[in-house]
Amino acid sequence: MTDFEPLGVELMDRDHPAIEARLQALASLSEIDPASAFDEIEGAISKHFADEEALMRTARVPIYPIHKQLHDQILAEFSQMRARLDLGQIAVVAAFLREQVPQAIAEHVAGPDTVTAGFLRAPGS
Fold first, then answer.
1. What pLDDT digit, counting tens, does each position of 91-115 carry?
2. Per-residue pLDDT tens over the stretch 49-78
3. Using N-to-C axis directions, what is the helix angle for 114-121 and 34-59, rounded to 10°?
4. Is 120 exposed, middle or buried (0-12, 13-18, 19+ CB in 10 A)?
5. Total-model pTM
6. Do 53 and 64 form a contact (C-beta atoms < 8 A)?
7. pLDDT (mean) for 77-87
8. Positive or negative CA dihedral for 113, 14, 79, 26?
């Protein structure tokens, strides 16, 4: 994962490093409880997405529908992994948390969040 540069939006600048710290802590543990780690990461990301979406709606960010769709895709991956967790596929879920989630979040911050932050920082937002 990468250290996130501030985007100039309080919500993003607060939540992104906190989510990154959770993911880094998870990656450094040799053994994890996948169920509790999954719940913690999914909860943090879901809450962040909901807060970010509310901010975008309030500010009438024009790319909101596209950005929300990207959030929904990431949350759908969590839903699929929840089913695999319920089936006892622990190694698959652990790999998802340690590899796929950090990459997806880094790409999301670098792309759509950066663009959205530009709209949110614009005068009149």
1. 899 889 989 999 999 999 999 999 9
2. 999 999 999 999 999 999 999 999 999 999
3. 40
4. buried
5. 0.92
6. yes
7. 96
8. positive
Tokens 């979406």 belong to residue: 53
Largest CA distance in the chain: 50
Which amino acid is residue 27, in one-letter code?
A
Three-class secondary structure assignment of the chain = CCCCCCCCCHHHHHHHHHHHHHHHHHHHCCCCCHHHHHHHHHHHHHHHHHHHHHHHHHHCCCCHHHHHHHHHHHHHHHHHHHHHHHCCCHHHHHHHHHHHHHHHHHHHHHHHHHHHHHHHHCCCC
